[in-house]
Every structure is written in C-alpha cells, then in structure tokens.
C-alpha cells in the first residue's frame, strides 16, 4: 500500500462508485497504460463502499496465479473445493459460495489486472457479472491479451469500459507533493509532471531515482528538482535501473515474491533475511497484506515483477522455484491450491521427482479442466516412474486433447500383468476408449469383449462390460448394448461409475426408441449420482450429455436445451477452453435456434461447433450435419451440400448410431437443392431403416419431414395385413400412441390435416407449434394452409398470409421448400411495382419513378394481383411479406 494519500481523479472515482451503487448495477472496467493509476483508483473506490451493504471481494490477478486453474481467485474461493464437479459445477459452486457469504448484500468483485486471470477464473467472473445482485469492476492494462469471458463483459453490455487518461498537471503537482511529503517548487513540479506525462508510477520512479542525490533538495521546506532530463524516460528502463541498484539481499526478496506471489510472509521470512524483507517493504518493492488469516506478500507493482523475472537468469529462476516448492512442502500444504503450486514449481524448476504428488496435481488440474497443465503434470509423473496410474491418467488426458496416437503409445508401454485384474480392467477400458473413439478402431469392441471373458473379478468385469456396451451402442449394435448394460445394472458388485455408464447407454436407446419419459428418468438418475462417479470416470459426462442432448432434440424441448446450455454456460465454457462437451452443447444450441427460425444464430453456432469439433472423431460429422440443416433452412444449397460432404468425410463409422441426424440432414440438403423427388425417396428409405432399427423416436421426425414436403399421403413402410401400405399421416398417427410427449400427437395432427387438406386444422396445428416456439414448423403449416386456401380462392387466404407474415417476421431469413411451394414467381419489374404499390404509392407516382406509362403500371398490377391471388392493394403488403426472403420492406 502506498504511503501517500490519494490525489485527484474525482470524476473517475465518482463514475466507479456510481457504477456499483447505481440503479443499473452495471460494472465498470478501467483500461490504461502501465502505471497510469488504475489499480490505485480501483482500490480507493472499493474502499469507500460500505461493507454492510456490499460484500466485496478484491482480487489481484498476477503472472504467477495465471498459471494455475482458479489461481486468480484463490483469495475468493474457500480453501476446500468439493470433488467431482464438472466445470460448470465448479462455477456454480463458487457462485453459491459467494452468494452465501454475501448474505443478501450486493456482491462486488473488484478485479485488478483482469487480463491476467486464468481461464476458469475469467469464466467465473463473467458468470458473477451476469448474476442479479452482483457488480464486477476492474482494471486492464493496455496492449495485453484479454481473456474472452472478460472481453465479453462489455460486448455483452455487462460493464462499461473506460480508458483511464493521464493525470492533468494540477494533479501530478499534488501527487508530487504527496510523494515527497511536502510542497514542491512550481517549476520543478511542472517539469517532473511533464516528464512523467501524467503517469503516477513514472513520477514516483523519477523521484526515487533522484532521491538522495544532489538533484533533489529541500530548502526552506520546499522541494526543488534540478535534474537535467530533457526527454521522458522509459518507465521500464527506470525500474530496471532501480532494480539493478538493489542490494543482493533485497533483490533476492523481490525475486522470491516475483515467482511466488502471493507468498506467505512466514515463508518469505524463512527464505530470506528478515532485514532484507523489511528493507524491500521500506523501499516500496513489496507490500504486505492480510488476507483470510494469512499474511501475504506481493510486489508493490506488477512492473517490478516483470523486470525482476526478466532479469533473472534461467539457472537462478529454477533454483528459486525449487526453493519455493521446498518451503511450501516444509510448512505443509494447507490449501488445495498449494498442492498445484508446489507441483508447478517442481515442474518448472526441473525437480519434479515425486510421482504421487504429480499424479495428484494432474488429477486436480484435469478436474479443473486445465488440459495443458494436466498433460504436463501427468507426463512428468510418468517420467518420474509413476507407473501405470500415471500412464492411464496421461493417456486419458491426451485422448481429450485429441492426441490418441500418443495416448496409445503411453498405454502400450505399461501393459499390465494378466493376474493383476483390477489394473487390467482399468487399463483395458482406457485403452479401449482411446482406440475406439480416438482412433476409430472398430475391432476394439471384439478385443474388449474377449478380454472381459477372462476376468474373474466381478466389479472389474462389470466395468469392462459397461464400456463394451456403450461402444456397441455407438456402432449401432443396440440390442447387445442394452443387454450388456442391463447385466451391469443387475450385478450387485458393479461400481457406481460402471452402473451409471450402463444407465446412460440405456437412456440413449430409450430416447431413440421414443421411450422419452423413461429415458428422462434414467438421465436424471445418472446426473444426480455425478459426485460419486466423476473422479473415477470423468468421461462419463460425455455419455450423459449425449443421452440427454438426444432426448431433448427428439422431444423438441427447446426450453430444456436453453436450460442446459445456460446451466453448463456453454459459451463461457468455450471461452474458458473447457473443451469437454462444449462442441456438443453448441450443436444443441444451433438445433434450438434452427427450430425457432433464428437462422443467423443457427448458422453461426453450428459453424462454431464445426470449428471446435474439427479434430474430434466423435462429433465432427454431427456438427457438419447440423450446419447442413442450418444452411438448408436458409435455402443455401451450396453450403448445405458442402457441409454434407464434410459430414460424410468426417463422420466416424464408430459413431454409426448418429445416422438418423446425418440422413435427415441429407434429406434437407437434397430438398433445398431442388431435387424434391430425390429428397422424398431418401426420406422414405430412411423411415424404413428407422423402423427396422426400432427408432420410433427418430422416425416421427422423418415422417414429419415428409409432411413438410407435402407428402402426407405418400405410402411408407411394409405392406400391412389388410394388403395396403400406410401413408405417412397414418404411420404418424400410429406412432403418436407409442412415442412419449406432446409433440408426436401434434405431428400426427399436422400429417392428417395436410393429407385431408383441412386448412382450419393446419392453422390450428400452426398455433400449437408456435406455442412451443417451433416457429419454422408453424410457418410451414401456415404456408401449407395459405397455399390451399389460395387454390380454393378462399377469402380466408389473406388472413393466412397475414399470419404467415407475422411468423416470418419473428424469424431470420428462412427459405424451406414448404415456404417456397406455391409462392408465385414475380418478374423483377413486377417486384418493383408491387413493392412501391404495397408502400402506398399511387400508380402515377410508380409510373414516374420507373419511367413507365400509368397504363403499363396498371397492367403490371393486375398481373401481380392474379399471381398473388389478392383482390387489391390493401392485401398486397401481407402477400409480399408472406414470401420468404421478401419482407416487402425495401422499396426499389
Ligand atoms: N491518484 C493517485 N493518487 C496517489 N497515488 C497514485 C494515484 N494514482 C496512482 N498512484 C500511485 O502510482 C503508482 C502506480 O499506480 P497503479 O499501480 O495504480 O498503476 P496501474 O495503472 O495499475 O499500473 P499497471 O498497469 O502496471 O498495473 C502506485 O504506487 C499508486 O499508488
Ligand atoms: Mg495495476
């Protein structure tokens, strides 16, 4: 803490206080160059907040905390973090902790140097900013890379972002007097003020440099500076010179803090001479502060750390880090973070020799989803003779980092002895996972199956069987998958992770078969047991997410999708580099946007999913299929075809169970390219295949795709006992009795209304779709009604068109075959005339504007009316707006 008073900055201070205490509760971030006064301003502002109304956490991110997951928030989070949480779970837990401690007061997070936050901390800060009853304020240094969740704070409008400008001359003069502890002669103040360019730190360093010299003298109580500097010196150079002049002992103190901050005072006192520690504090190099019953030491300014670390030779750096690790080990690791800190120091100093420590630390980094750090630690553990535990951990982490080949090499180097069954089971499953999903080796299933038979330990066997089952599910061997999973569940010896994995497999199959209620119950069960399986089998999360996502998509539960996306903070997770599951959540998000007609979001999100999943052999094909669907929704045949080709190229045979989504997308792609017969044939075949696979949950959707292509009366499926074949509408009606939920009966009603040309029913179905936010389906059913009414030359056609225009108005650009069907084709000229007329221009005005005769305009209008099936100008507006892609808005 600086010894001098705070000077000036009144407007900025008020602005900061208003940001916290104001009605909107929108936070504020100050940006600015190094030393301009951001941290001090933040500290002063926060210090004036009354603690009875605000629960305030002040966080100083630093280069050392940036290396640890949640390192930036050690001062905020309780020492003990619950085990077995997902990334989202950790974030939620942290938020709950803050809420509890706030006890009803408004939460204020003040983050100094937010650009140095580690990714999970940054994600949490973003989450807090989004919370009601919380405000985030902070500082950022110019020119630094800013973590995405922090940048998103102002792009999402959660905080204001203000550039902190240099101090005006009057304020630098005041500051100078504070620093020197007495009045300063006006000329000196003016010169030093200009040399510092209004930068307080530079001013302070200038004074420091001159202190004790002839240049800076106090005469009759007035300070006078006679230095000869003409140009403003560089701040870093100045600090560099100062650091260079420190005694060895004081510099050693600075260095220990630079590599270890925040560092406990007791540790520092053990590592360095107490007199030097005191001198370092005296000299303003370090500051000592009390936090959470600990006395911590930090550098007085981050720039000192930057200079100290840069000046420190590699060999010395390593020695310091090893010393820090030793010290912390000696006093005993008190917080969970201490373990990670020690491990990272050991790693960085090349003294990592304790495999148990490294494995523990790697597990911790991995459960915090810091994949790069977890990889380094696990590899070090293996190198330190960590044996099979280290190898399995490293292989798992490598698999999630899309490096399956390396993972296999690691595993094959530690093949277990056949009689060590427990180990063998774990090894087999990890290896199986890497080889099946990572390397797409389908023969893995048979290998695993035959090895499982040789295992006598019942629990171990159950674990292997649960893996075999989910592999079989993925390659579409559904019956065997269910049978095996059931066996695992029936076996009392099976462990929690094996059971819940088996349950996820069954939940997936239930969803695909249309048993959506039972599937939902199973998913809830797996979810609620998460704390008991996550540490043992973190990747079970993916199986759970796949089952849950599939079920939500099949029920078209858009609110449910919103909820899990919000719950898992998908966008945040992505920004925080929690890759696990992020891509899959993006697919779900794109799907929900697509069904709502938000084709811009659908396109953007599905492209994002493709990017995240590009290197994954698991969901890449699914992401491309979703992108094809989004493109098809917009009528973009070229992109749809390109995405479909990518889907085929990237889709792994080991993910065959996802075929319904890919083939549905292929249908949409064909339809959008104008090949309706091809699309219809393809979807008809798909219905047959789904029926053979007993995937009724999927089949209703494909049947509905046929209804959307106006094929409700088409025959599908096998010949029945009555000698005839069912129509699409009939099959939908049949399935609506078997597939759970409110959607199938609605789809069936749509089919029947389309087959019987019942326009009233089509419009009623559309209303029900709209109520479920299935806006595209609603618009299509309305378009089908409008088309039929126009054919019947019914007066109600105009009303239907109005409704269609209203629905399309809620969507981004959407252009599907159902919406295009029966849409009249106007010539370029007719469009011009029609738009002007719809905007109320009289024929004469139109004629003048288009250089036509009034008579020609009249002729055009008559043709337009008859093409659109309207009686006059009053209906023109709605008719034009009901044509997809032509909101009728722009004239010309
Ligand atoms: N208004 C002020 N009144 C008194 N002292 C100030 C004022 N502004 C800054 N200082 C002092 O100047 C020094 C540099 O300020 P500060 O640490 O806030 O800079 P910063 O902008 O946070 O720099 P960085 O980007 O490097 O973190 C500190 O010692 C601080 O106490
Ligand atoms: Mg600062």
Description:
With 892 residues, this protein is of the alpha/beta class. The protein is 63% helix and 7% strand. The chain has 46 helices and twelve strands. Strands 2-3-4-1-5 form a five-stranded parallel β-sheet, with helices on both faces. Strand 6 (216-219) and strand 7 (222-225) form a beta hairpin. The radius of gyration is 34 Å and the shape is flat. The structure holds adenosine-5'-triphosphate and magnesium ion.
Write the layout of secondary structure elements.
Blueprint: H1 10-21, E1 27-32, H2 38-47, E2 54-60, H3 87-102, E3 106-112, H4 119-130, E4 134-141, H5 148-155, E5 159-163, H6 169-180, H7 186-195, H8 200-210, E6 216-219, E7 222-225, H9 235-244, H10 248-260, E8 263-264, H11 265-271, H12 274-282, E9 286-291, E10 294-299, H13 302-311, H14 314-331, H15 336-349, H16 355-367, H17 371-383, H18 387-400, H19 404-412, H20 421-438, H21 444-453, H22 458-474, H23 478-490, H24 496-512, H25 516-528, H26 530-533, H27 540-555, H28 558-567, H29 570-575, H30 582-595, H31 599-613, H32 620-633, H33 637-650, H34 659-672, H35 676-692, H36 696-708, E11 715-719, E12 725-727, H37 728-736, H38 743-755, H39 759-771, H40 775-791, H41 797-809, H42 817-820, H43 828-838, H44 843-850, H45 854-868, H46 873-881
Parallel strand pairs: 1-4, 1-5, 2-3, 3-4
Antiparallel strand pairs: 6-7, 8-10, 9-10, 11-12
Helix pairs in contact: 1-2, 3-4, 4-5, 6-7, 6-8, 8-9, 9-13, 10-12, 10-13, 10-14, 14-15, 16-17, 16-18, 17-18, 18-19, 18-20, 19-20, 20-21, 20-22, 21-22, 22-23, 22-24, 23-24, 24-25, 24-27, 25-27, 27-30, 28-30, 30-31, 30-32, 31-32, 32-33, 32-34, 33-34, 34-35, 35-36, 36-37, 36-38, 37-38, 38-39, ...
């Amino acid at each position: 803490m600086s010894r001098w008073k705070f000077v000036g900055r009144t407007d900025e201070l008020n602005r900061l206080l208003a940001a916290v205490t104001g009605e909107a509760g929108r936070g504020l971030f100050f940006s600015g160059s190094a030393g301009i006064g951001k941290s001090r301003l933040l500290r002063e502002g926060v210090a004036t907040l009354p603690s009875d109304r605000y629960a305030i956490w002040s966080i100083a991110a630093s280069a050392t905390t940036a290396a640890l997951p949640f390192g930036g928030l050690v001062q905020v989070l309780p020492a003990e973090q619950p085990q077995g949480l997902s990334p989202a779970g950790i974030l939620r837990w942290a938020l709950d902790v803050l809420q509890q401690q706030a006890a009803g007061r408004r939460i204020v997070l003040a983050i100094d140097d937010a650009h140095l936050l580690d990714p999970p901390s940054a994600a949490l800060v973003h989450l807090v900013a989004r919370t009601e009853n919380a405000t985030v304020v902070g500082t950022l240094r110019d020119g630094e890379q800013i973590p995405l969740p922090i940048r998103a704070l102002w792009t999402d409008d959660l905080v204001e972002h203000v550039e902190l400008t240099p101090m005006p001359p009057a304020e630098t003069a005041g500051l100078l007097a504070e620093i020197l502890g007495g009045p300063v002669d006006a000329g000196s103040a003016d010169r030093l003020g200009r040399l510092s360019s209004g930068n307080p730190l530079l001013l302070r360093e200038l004074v420091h440099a001159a202190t004790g010299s002839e240049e800076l003298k106090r005469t009759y109580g007035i300070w006078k500076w006679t230095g000869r500097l003409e140009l403003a010196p560089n701040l870093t150079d100045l600090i560099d010179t100062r650091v260079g002049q420190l005694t060895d002992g004081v510099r050693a103190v600075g260095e220990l803090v630079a590599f270890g901050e925040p560092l406990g005072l007791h540790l520092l006192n053990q590592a360095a001479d107490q007199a030097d520690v005191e001198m370092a504090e005296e000299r303003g190099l370090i500051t000592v502060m009390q936090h959470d019953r600990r006395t911590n030491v930090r550098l007085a300014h981050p720039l000192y750390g930057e200079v100290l670390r840069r000046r420190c030779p590699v060999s010395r750096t390593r020695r310091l880090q090893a010393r820090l690790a030793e010290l912390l080990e000696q006093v005993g690791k008190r917080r969970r973070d201490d373990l990670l800190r020690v491990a990272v120091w050991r790693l960085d100093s090349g003294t990592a020799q304790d495999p148990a420590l490294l494995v523990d630390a790697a597990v911790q980094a991995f459960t915090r989803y810091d994949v790069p750090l977890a990889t380094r630690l696990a590899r070090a553990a293996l190198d330190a003779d960590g044996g099979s535990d280290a190898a399995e951990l490293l292989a798992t982490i490598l698999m999630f980092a899309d490096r399956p080949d390396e993972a296999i090499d690691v595993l094959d180097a530690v093949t277990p002895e056949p009689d060590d069954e427990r180990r063998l089971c774990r090894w087999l499953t990890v290896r199986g996972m890497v080889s099946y999903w990572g390397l797409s080796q389908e023969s893995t299933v048979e290998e695993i199956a035959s090895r499982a038979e040789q295992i006598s330990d019942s629990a171990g066997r159950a674990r292997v069987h649960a893996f075999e089952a989910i592999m079989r599910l993925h390659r579409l061997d559904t019956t065997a998958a269910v049978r095996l999973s059931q066996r695992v569940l029936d076996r009392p010896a099976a462990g929690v992770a094996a059971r819940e994995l088996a349950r996820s497999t069954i939940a997936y199959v239930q969803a695909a078969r249309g048993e959506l209620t039972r599937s939902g119950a199973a998913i809830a069960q797996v979810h609620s047991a998460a704390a008991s399986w996550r540490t043992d089998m973190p990747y079970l999360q993916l199986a759970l997410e796949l089952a849950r996502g599939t079920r939500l998509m099949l029920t078209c539960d858009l609110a449910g999708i919103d909820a899990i996306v919000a719950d898992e903070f998908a966008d945040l997770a992505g920004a925080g580099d929690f890759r696990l599951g992020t891509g899959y959540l993006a697919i779900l998000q794109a799907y929900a946007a697509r069904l709502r007609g938000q084709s811009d979001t659908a396109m953007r999100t599905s492209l994002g999913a493709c990017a995240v999943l590009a290197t994954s052999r698991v969901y890449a094909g699914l992401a491309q299929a979703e992108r094809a669907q989004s493109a098809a929704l917009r009528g973009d045949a070229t992109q749809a075809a390109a995405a479909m080709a990518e889907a085929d190229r990237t889709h792994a045979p080991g993910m065959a169970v996802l075929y319904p989504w890919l083939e549905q997308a292929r249908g949409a792609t064909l339809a959008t390219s104008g090949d309706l017969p091809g699309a219809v044939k393809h979807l008809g075949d798909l219905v047959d295949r789904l029926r053979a696979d007993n995937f009724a949950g999927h089949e209703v959707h494909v049947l509905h795709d046929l209804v959307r292509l106006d094929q409700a009366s088409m025959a599908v499926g096998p010949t029945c006992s009555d000698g005839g074949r069912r129509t699409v509408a009939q099959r939908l009606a049949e399935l609506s009795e078997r597939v759970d939920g409110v959607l199938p009966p609605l789809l069936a009603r749509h089919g029947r209304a389309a087959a019987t040309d019942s326009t009233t029913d089509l419009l009623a179905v559309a209303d029900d779709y709209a109520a479920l936010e299935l806006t595209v389906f609603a618009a299509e059913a309305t378009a089908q009604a409008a088309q039929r009414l126009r054919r019947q030359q019914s007066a109600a056609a105009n009303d239907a068109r109005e409704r269609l225009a209203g629905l399309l108005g809620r969507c981004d650009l959407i252009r599907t075959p159902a919406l295009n069907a029966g849409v009249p084709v106007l010539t370029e000229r007719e469009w011009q005339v029609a738009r002007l007329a719809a905007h109320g221009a009289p024929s004469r005005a139109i004629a003048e504007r288009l250089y036509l005769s009034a008579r020609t305009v009249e002729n055009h209008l008559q043709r337009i009316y008859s093409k659109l099936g309207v009686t006059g100008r009053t209906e023109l507006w709605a008719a034009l707006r009901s044509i997809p892609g032509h909101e009728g808005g722009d004239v010309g």
